[in-house]
Amino acid sequence: MGSVVTGITVGHAPTDLASLDALELAAARDLLPSFDAQAARALLRDSFTEAAPYRGAGIGEGRAFRLEVGLGTVAVRTFDPARAERDSAGCPPPAVPADSLAARFDSYALAQDHYWIGDVATGYGRWLDGQAEAEAIRGRVPSRRSRVSSWSAKSRARMLRAYAELDYRAVNAQPGIPAMVTLTYPGDWLPVAPSFDVVKAHLRALLDRFQSEYGYRPAGLWKMEFQRRGAPHFHLFLSVPVGSRDGRSFERWLSDTWVSVVGHPDPEQRRLHAMRGTHVSFGAASRCTDGRRLAIYFLKHGTKTRDGKEYQNEPPEAWGIQADPVTGEVTSEGGTGRFWGYWGMSRELASVDLSPADWYKVRRILRRWRTAQGQKVRALGSGGGNSGGWALVNDGPAFAALLSRALAAV
Q1: pLDDT by residue (tens digit) across 208-255?
Q2: Which of 87, 126, 376, 377 is the most exposed place for a label (fewest CB within 10 A)?
Q3: Contact between residue 266 and residue 188 where contact means Cβ atoms under 8 Å apart
Q4: What's the Cα-to-Cα distance from 363 to each of 44, 78, 81, 251, 395, rounded to whole Å?
């Protein structure tokens, strides 16, 4: 059954997906990876000697040494559970010099009639001495949402790990067949895509129309790239529906809708855009049978290669700072926002706390395995004695089981 799906590659010509029977559709959906966090936790508890559980702030405080497993990742990290507990309970975070905060954080908030600056995700920061200090620090803090001029190595690593840790059951649950979708712009692209904000608005509009047509919002992945001519384009991963309400194939609906969303004013450009503005490939999606392969598929264009494809991750010069020719007012900050993202899914992890001795052994094994595999996203343990790291694997729980055997043999 799987070979039937693997052999389908759709360009712009309509394809009758309705001819596939229920078993073939099920086989295509079963190719997608999913993650059972509960089963993974049980496996970790059975495979490793779990450290004594944390008993609360003030009782046996100290660092926790944790092994985390996702669909396609295995990671080791350390943290202070007492501090995490105090932060979650609303206790004031430890004092930090304002200049240090200004270099690291970008947000402040009013809580319990006091101003606080810090990292909202971790709760790390400090209370400020009134509104005056809050305003003074706010002016020195760089915005975390500043424009991006290129796709950084850190962002690539974050994408790789995020895509490998997502639970793809939401995509499995939606009707249709998993596919890779490409959206491109007309030859004369700048009039309809003058900035990142406009381009992202086009993508949001396409999702809105998808929901209006099919009755649900798709779960999936997206990544933005640039062609050598400078034009942006999107790669999407989602489950492609069978047909549409008016009898058109999904491929025809996608082409018509994308041309309408972009809305080039030149009739000839619209005609050419309708011919080659979209592409749907089922074969590429069928090869992404685990979290690692799916993550690498989206990364491959972002890696510097001999064929010079790094230009695909550099925004066009035409997206530079733009100003009104009359008033001189800046109308666009140039650059881009995020190069990647996902919809309708969440990252799922299972974890177990190890003794320090076992944790260091696991980290050493994982580091040697990663070196042998040539993974260079981040060197495990390179940040110091307690620093962690992660590795990209085909099957996180299965790899954790192998780790437990290697640990027993050390």
Answers
A1: 999 999 999 999 999 998 888 889 999 999 999 877 677 888 999 999
A2: 376
A3: yes
A4: 16, 11, 20, 47, 18
A 10 A CB-CB count for 96 gives: 15
Give me the residues paired with residue 350 across strands.
Answer: 69
- Residue-wise pLDDT for 244-302, tens only, equals 677 888 999 999 999 999 999 999 999 999 999 999 988 777 777 777 888 888 887 54
Nearest partner of 380 among 396, 399, 392, 363, judged by Cα: 363
In one-letter notation, the amino acid at residue 55 is R
What is the torsional sign of CA 22, 24, 28, 30?
positive
Instruction: Tell me the H-state helices in 94-217.
Output: 98-104, 130-138, 153-165, 169-173, 196-214
CB 9 within 8 A of CB 285: no
Cα(37)–Cα(177) distance, integer angstroms: 24
Between CA 31 and CA 8 the distance in angstroms is 15
How many residues does this entry show for the chain?
410
Residue 40, classified by CB atoms within 10 Å of its CB into exposed (0-12), middle (13-18) or buried (19+), is buried
Q: 361 with 406: CB under 8 angstroms?
A: no
For residue 340, the one-letter residue type is W
**In terms of pTM, does the model score above 0.70?**
yes
Angle at 384 between CA 382 and CA 389, to 5 degrees: 50
- Angle, in degrees to the nearest 10, between helices 356-373 and 396-409: 120
User: Cα dihedral sign for 144, 148, 153, 156?
Assistant: positive
What single-letter amino acid sits at 46? D
Distance CA 203, CA 214 (A): 16
- 235: part of which helix (H) or strand (E)? strand 232-240
